[in-house]
Queue: 3 jobs
Job 1
Amino acid sequence: MKNIIYPTDFSENSEQAFDYALELARIFDAKVTLFNSYQLPYSKSNLLVSMTERMQADSKEGLENLEQKALKHEDYKNLQFDLESRSGGFVSLIPKVAKDREGNLIVMGTKGASGLKEMFIGSNTLEVIQTSHCPVLAIPENALPATKRKFDKIAMATDLKKIKNPEQLSPLIEIAKACRASVEFVNIIRPDDPISDDERAKQVLFLEKLCGDIKTSIHFATNSDIIDGLSDYINHKKPDLFVMLSRKHSLFERLFTKSITSKLSFRAEVPLLVMDE
């Protein structure tokens, strides 16, 4: 992991994610790309041109302040930073920045809608998950501070279907090895599940082999609703990091994945890593 992308709107919630980006950069000795955008409606007015220049200057100044804040911290004083300020839509630019900068991981905050009993993933973060080919680490508003959150136990949801590109699991494996964490694969079995026991066993062996020396285990649970089954697991087992693959091969799967990620994130205080398959 060489380059971590940290998009920020300079809000309080995004600061929580900043700490995670810095801590992972320290662990992997990776560069951090700080990204912010600014945008005004198109106009030929000289006043709006002046406002755009002011917003551009404020954006760059905000990123410079973040860099200086990090470098003053003893643990992060040797980190390298790139500052990226662009004109345009914040959410739509994030995947482009990740691609241009050859990012290996996007770390961003998510905030639940106030007044609701369930916490839902922020619409910005969900859109980035759906449109980016770069893995996204979403940090909930009420997550533990990064320095107190040790990724000792990682859980990954799996339908135990064949993974077409094992390389997509690289972020999970890299983090698990660097943090010396165990990985538990979680499979929710529905009554009408078409996968046979033999197929499950083969895929479990494949995942274990893929993880190499990482300590692994498998957790099976029966539930007619996958979302409820995974939520029960998170609430009871309380992993330090929860991981999912985002399948995008069909409209149904996109909607299905969107439903799961939006409802799981975040009833708990657990960071969510979503990898594109």
Job 2
Amino acid sequence: MMNRFVSTIQITLVSAVLLGVESAQAHEGTTGIVKDRMDRFKASKESVKQIKKALKTKDWSRIQKEANDLQQWASEMSNFFPEGSNGKPSEAKDNIWSDWEGFLRSVESYQEGTEKLVQASNNKSLEATATAFKATLKSCKSCHNDFKAD
């Protein structure tokens, strides 16, 4: 089961890297809150990458640090989407603001996932941490599907 989980994570990360190259070019010249949130999402991608590596070696210190960073971002994320912060170069769909409650539910799902990830990593349970990590990634994907333009 762990090998299949690791393979899924590897495919997800390769896709994210490939999309990140395109995104980096599209984000040139971005300023203000849009740049701030893009930077925070970029940092969260790096945390995901670090957790993936750390799961293989059971580096609990790294997993816990990155899980806490993700949890911190989850608690602040909605503040980085003030009304009027859409439009190019932002990749946020307009429905974030027209369905604000739906967006907040997605953020809450991410928060719950990161809380479970922090708790599992603090308990140093590889299985529980891997499960919580997978659930956190699933909440990311779901929110991106609903609220991020391609």
Job 3
Amino acid sequence: MKENRPISGFSKFSKTQKTDWLIQQLGLDASSADFLADFESKNVAAQKIIEDLSENHLSNFHFPFTVAPNFLVNGQYRVFPFVTEESSVVAALGKAAGFWAKRGGFHVENLGTEKKGQLHFSWKGNPDKLKLHFNELETQLRVDAAPITQKMEKRGGGILSIELKYLPGILPDYYQLDVAFETRDAMGANFINSCLEQFGKSLNHWLSSQADWDAEEREAEIIMAILSNYVPASKVRVWVECPVEKLSENDDPEAACRLAEKFVRAVHISRNDVSRAVTHNKGIFNGVDALALATGNDFRAIEAGGHAFAARNGKYAGLSEAKNENGIFTFSMELSLAVGVVGGVTALHPMARLAMQILENPSATELMQYLAVAGLASNWSAVRALVTTGIQQGHMKMHLSNILNTLNATDEQKAAARLYFEKREVSFSDVEQYLKHDTGR
């Protein structure tokens, strides 16, 4: 019988105790314990790594690990690994890769790798006084953070700049130390946060040493110290281009011109209408997230920063651009993101390590490029489908297997249904009716 009260010490239960409690408390089938066990890795070492990644582990939740070949990036072919549950995404990525490989491939350049973090604090003194002494304070901040930054500096990274900001429009007596960092091949979250927390200690120590200042001036209230996932100075530009008439796969110049014109208009709409922009960018992150997840990177941070970047000009807009000029079609995107190829889940998770090997062990800047390529490729396929056949034709074809599994179709029925729907539109009700007719029910 369900107990309507909180449970104490749940995280200290063994896995078996947690499972038994869930079964008893929620009335789950007793076989749930065996079901959960079935999804665990038979590789004991790998399973232990996965268990240690999160609190209250019960089992593993499986998503497909897939690959798409033929990504021609700056003249080099790459195979991209993806983790996604949406069946149409990888098919769309593979199709885009093959299409653009025949037209010069994807071109990418890094525009920066600077990351940011802030120390947020309140101080009741005169802002001009703090600004006047800021050079002295900055020197002390850097000296005190040296034990933290030493190793990063040997790898070519470290603290790039420290800026004092007075922001009374947000809160009375509110300041920030806005700090720029270079973290090389690491995503750098722990490094940045450690530096910022040290800055908080150093700030108060430095203020307390100003013997001739008023009492309230010799102490700051530290509000928080945290990195920012908004990284507009860590970004990549990616683009594809070809003569307009080459956009047709059937050597039909008129069809190519129609596609180019409609494509450019569709992208223009995404840059000027928020309702379309959100879904447009979701299509970009279908590719970005799938590659980020496969490589053990924080796709949530990448998405948050990417969506903020989409609003950098004062309104939320589509991230990609398209144009036809002088007979040349160009489709491009700038994307801000921060990634890592050393440490964290990327180094720990066996599948993430394999994904990095499939990518031929890229640097962080190279992985940024590949993520941007995946985003533009996904966006190309989605917008192209929207302005030609419509999104549902290809999307629902790829979901046919999911529908058949949901309806408990046999292997024979699945084979027959795939043949039947090869040249027909797919919907759940259509498949359901087909199976009823096929089985005589």
